[in-house]
């Protein structure tokens, strides 16, 4: 069965890949912002690159920023 038979287009696959990359970059920026607060404006820029269909993810990334930073702190402490 080909991708076309399942209704999955190359464009949709590339869109998903780009969305995942944007989420990865945003998450990395959120974690880095813990040590480098000057990166906070970059968080907004990266989140703005998410496609319209992922608007809820962008909003949740903003809402969850402190939780992610706390988790990254815990991870760093556990690694020591």
Describe it for me?
The mean pLDDT is 63. The chain has helices spanning 10-32, 40-47, 55-63, 65-79. It is mostly helical. Helix 1 (10-32) packs antiparallel against helix 2 (40-47) and helix 1 (10-32) crosses helix 4 (65-79). The chain has four helices and no strands. The protein is elongated and about 40 Å long.
Major beta sheet, specifics? none
Give the N-terminus to C-terminus distance in angstroms.
Answer: 49 Å
The oligomeric state is: single chain
Q: Share of helix among residues? A: 55-70%
Q: Secondary-structure element order, as H and E? A: HHHH
How many helical stretches?
4
Q: Average pLDDT across residues? A: 63
Apparent shape: elongated
Work out the strand percent: under 5%
Structural class call reads mainly alpha
Number of strands: 0
Secondary-structure blueprint:
Elements lengths: L9 H23 L7 H8 L7 H9 L1 H15 L1
Helix pairs in contact: 1-2, 1-4
Question: What's this entry about, in short?
Answer:
The chain is mainly α. It has helices at 10-32, 40-47, 55-63, 65-79.
What features would you highlight for this structure?
mainly alpha; 80 residues
């Amino acid at each position: 069965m080909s991708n076309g038979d399942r209704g999955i287009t190359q464009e949709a696959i590339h869109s998903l890949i780009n969305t995942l990359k944007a989420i990865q970059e945003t998450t990395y920026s959120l974690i880095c912002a813990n040590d480098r607060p000057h990166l906070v404006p970059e968080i907004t820029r990266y989140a703005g690159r998410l496609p319209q269909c992922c608007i809820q993810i962008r909003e949740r990334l903003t809402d969850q920023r402190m939780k992610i930073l706390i988790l990254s702190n815990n991870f760093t402490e556990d690694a020591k």
